[in-house]
Amino acid sequence: MRTDYLSIKAVTASVHLVAIFAASMLATTTLAMAGGSWSTYIVSCFASQESTLHQDSDGTLWAGCGTATSGNVGVRRSSDGGQTWHAPTTNPSGIIDTFRVHDITRGHDGALYLAGTISQEGTQYRVIRLDTSTPEPYAASATLIGEPVVPLNSTIGHYAELPNGAALAVSQVGQAKLFRPSPSTGNMASSWTASTDIKQFTSLVTHNGQFYASGSQIGIPPRIFLPPTAPGAEPWELVEVVLDTSFDGEMWGIAVNDQRVVAVGINQDDNFGKIYVSNGDPYDPANFTVHEFRDGELRSWAHGVCMRGNLIAVVGRRLPSGARVLVSTNGGTSFTDVSPSGSAILSSCVIAPDGILTVMGSGGFIGVWDGMEITDQIFSDRFSGNVITFEKN
């Protein structure tokens, strides 16, 4: 492992070094905001950290509230870029009013899926489906119902579906995973395939009809989980790739496109955030370039990542407090510090087709940054393009 904090040439030469070194440790480029500006808003979702953000293809934003405090649960919707929010109604009424939302995604059928748990005692809803194709109240139903036995009673932290309707739900805090091979599978957890054999997932996304995840835990090295390669393997039987054996820590977010895999997290040994960007076969850890997420000597933690083409944003926090955002416009070759002011712990982000970045964090913080905006598109394009959200934490 090479640590290079001084040589600017190391940034451009890193691709040539990956065949020699296990990974290239690069100093993060720290620049001014390059003409961009932040607009900040508040969503009534005052979680300390547990929150998730999703953006639809028409620009609609959905914010998930993940604490058990009254009023800080459920989901909020914004149709004006995060300026105003409201809690949608459902049929049956109230089904999501006490639901702790840890993940939001669109499914194979176009419906909106909320993953988490009902906070009321005695209820077992873990994934709820909302049909948002018609006006409110949205038709709501349970996609996954937990049962009072381990691991079928896990609070779901992440959920994703493949185009064929296969689904994977993973525990918020443990190694439990539940797989549904088909939409025709029942909604009781006992009807799904349960597994606790693979290390904990801290984020889960899909790309090209396959699952990808990041994870690990405090006492073991950081890793990502890539699609299976063995003949006949199930879609959920992901391959563990240990990114670095020199420290213990976790990768908390992952983003994937045809060009690269980006994973972000923390080195728990020294409390500094890390960014891993693949430059070749992601199954080989030697093909990842490593960037520091820290701010000088200040400790840091990268909580989430989003990507669109060559645009990448990594969100998290300085320690003990302070929002932190690094962005790249060159596919992860270098990153620029564009952190907004304030002490919010940022956990989720999305990038619109025109480059507009929206981030979400603790205390209901919503930040919108226009520094990556594609200048030849008008504002309305932000609400009409094809948006793909890769990171939810």
Structure summarized in a few sentences:
2% of the residues lie in helices and 44% in strands. With 393 residues, it is mainly β. A hairpin with a 6-residue loop joins strand 9 (112-118) and strand 10.
Examine the coordinates and then state which fold CATH places here, giving the name of the CATH topology of the domain at 2-87 and 198-383.
Answer: Neuraminidase
Strand content: 35-45%
Number of helices: 1
What radius of gyration results from the CA coordinates?
20 Å
Beta strand count: 30
The largest sheet is: 10 strands, mixed
Helical residues, percent: under 10%
For the record, the CATH class of the domain at 2-87 and 198-383 is Mainly Beta
- End-to-end CA span: 28 Å
CATH architecture heading of the domain at 2-87 and 198-383: 6 Propeller
| Net shape | globular
Arithmetic mean of pLDDT: 85
Structural class: mainly beta
Give unreliable regions as ranges.
1-33, 376-393
Write the layout of secondary structure elements.
Elements: E1 2-4, H1 9-17, E2 24-26, E3 38-42, E4 51-55, E5 61-66, E6 73-78, E7 90-91, E8 99-106, E9 112-118, E10 125-131, E11 138-145, E12 156-161, E13 167-171, E14 177-180, E15 193-195, E16 201-207, E17 210-217, E18 223-226, E19 239-242, E20 249-256, E21 261-267, E22 272-278, E23 288-292, E24 299-308, E25 311-319, E26 323-328, E27 336-337, E28 346-351, E29 357-361, E30 365-369
Parallel strand pairs: 1-2, 2-23, 7-11
Antiparallel strand pairs: 3-30, 4-5, 5-6, 8-9, 9-10, 10-11, 12-13, 13-14, 14-15, 16-17, 17-18, 17-20, 18-19, 20-21, 21-22, 22-23, 24-25, 25-26, 26-27, 28-29, 29-30
